[in-house]
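Pasting as-is:
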Amino acid sequence: MIITITDEARAQIKEMMQDEPAEAKLRFGVKGGGCSGLSYALGFEEEYNEELNVLEVINDIPVVISKQDIPMLEETVIDFKENLMGGGFSIKNPQAAYSCGCGSSFRPEDYKGEIEKC
């Protein structure tokens, strides 16, 4: 298993998937940008390219991850936490050598890309 989805995150994702087509899968990945260099991307999609992506069912959620993102996401835990301001997803990534304060961007040890100023 590449990533872990906690029971709290599973419940939130399942609730969100009710508004998506039956074929929808969770897309988890990495995109350039953010104050640490890379940002996490979470969304839903119906179709994916089997040559470029991996499909795993994690905690009863079908998850699509780009093969090129796997080294940066291995052993990542996706959680959902409630707080006074509502709630949000929390991502713990052991591949991140640095994470910004908001937790939505990170930088692996060997990252060579551009970094935006916060």
